[in-house]
Each structure stands twice: as structure tokens, then as C-alpha cells.
């Protein structure tokens, strides 16, 4: 008898009310409401691959100046990786990491959540010293792919590489990790999108086109520029890449539709 009274009282109260104050909408499951932000929103994994080889470090005087500009570009980019409203009451959230390379690959930081990990990642980028030797871009891209696969989210559609390089070496130079074409094709097969960013503007190099997923991921992206347009050129590159990612990112699937609420 007591159980019957309890059931009738519950029916009279009606369906449970979504708690006030939640930033996102709620989803009902098993007769209860859960905040939608209990589940991941729209995660994006972004990994920087930075060329600090001799052809970059020693191109202009003072030596190492272009590497310093590449580091500044990377840190300015990291500053913009903040949570933002996406769509369908979800937020776009970032994981970011970086490496730099010459004839060896040096991990700067594995994928880490933004913005909480911004300061540490930027400090590590700032402390990079250029290696200044050969240019094994194929090895660096494959290591970046590996970092994207082992870290970050399991949402494979939202994984991106940003490769900053001058495109050297030329054809015939030693490439110990299968070559640039092989590395670029591996990224494509895995659904990883690759932005190809030149060290300097208007730098035309076929290898930069090979690195990029397609023409839209290459354009005239540049990590450095000459004054007085340096700030404008670099800012335009960063904003264009972020806008492309935000406009094409895939949200995680929502929970399946629930049956209509029924009462006694």
C-alpha cells in the first residue's frame, strides 16, 4: 500500500525539473536530468610542428631571429585557444602541444588542455633553443601524428597539425622516415588535417603544398614577416586558421533521443 501511495505522489509531482543555473541544456536519462556539459563538448586537438633547423635559424642576421619570431607566432596562437561557444549549447574546447625539429625531433609538450595549460606550454615554447642542423620534416610530422593519436580526445575528426617550416630540404636530400609524401599521406589516411605555414610570406615551395591537406590549408600562411606589416600578416594567419577550425569542427554526438515522459 505504501509503495502505491509513493508512486501516486510521484506522478502528481510530474517530471523532475532541470536544476536552475546550469550553463548548458540538460538531457534526461533513466528518469533523471543530467547537465549536458557532463559530457565532452566539442574537443579540438592542435599540435605545432616547428622547424628550428639551420636553414631557418641561419637565414638572416642576427642568427636565430626567425626562430624567435616562430616562437612568438606559436605563443600568440596559444593565447587564442580559449573556450568559446560553439553551437547546439556546446563549447569548443582545445588541447594543444608542440615539438621542434632539425635532424632530431624534440618534444616541447604533449597535448594538454587549454586554457589551463597555456602558461606552461608558452613557457616551454619560449625556452626552445634552435638545433640548427638538417631538416627531417617527415620524421617531425610523423611524431606529431603520433602525439595526436595517443593524447587529447578520442574524437578523430578534430585533430590538426600546424607545420611551420621553410620547406627545405630539396628533393634528393636524406629523409629517414619515408619522405614527406609518405608523412603527408599518413596524416590524410588518419583524417588529420595539416596546415602548412611558411617561415616567411610569399614563400613558394612545392614541399609546403605537399605538407598541406589541400590548398585551403596552405594559402599564404606565414609565421613571420617584415616590418611594418609583421603584426598584420601574422595575426591574419592565426585568425584564418582558427576560423577554419571552428567552422569545420565536428561536435561529439549527443545522447540518443529519450522516450516521452509518461505518468500514471
Automatic annotation (TrEMBL):
Q: Please list the GO biological process terms of this entry.
A: cell adhesion
SMART domains tied to this protein: VWA
Is Secreted one of the keywords? yes
VWFA domain boundaries = 45-241
User: Where found, per UniProt?
Assistant: Secreted, Extracellular space, Extracellular matrix
User: Do you know which InterPro entries this protein is assigned to?
Assistant: ECM_Assembly_Org (IPR050525), VWF_A (IPR002035), vWFA_dom_sf (IPR036465)
**Which cellular component appears as one GO term in the record?**
extracellular space
Give the top-rank taxon of the lineage listed in the UniProt record for this protein.
Eukaryota
Q: What keywords does the record list, in alphabetical order?
A: Cell adhesion, Extracellular matrix, Repeat, Secreted
Q: How does it assemble?
A: Trimers composed of three different chains: alpha 1(VI), alpha 2(VI), and alpha 3(VI).
By what name is this protein known? VWFA domain-containing protein
Species source reads Zonotrichia albicollis
| Taxonomic classification | Eukaryota, Metazoa, Chordata, Craniata, Vertebrata
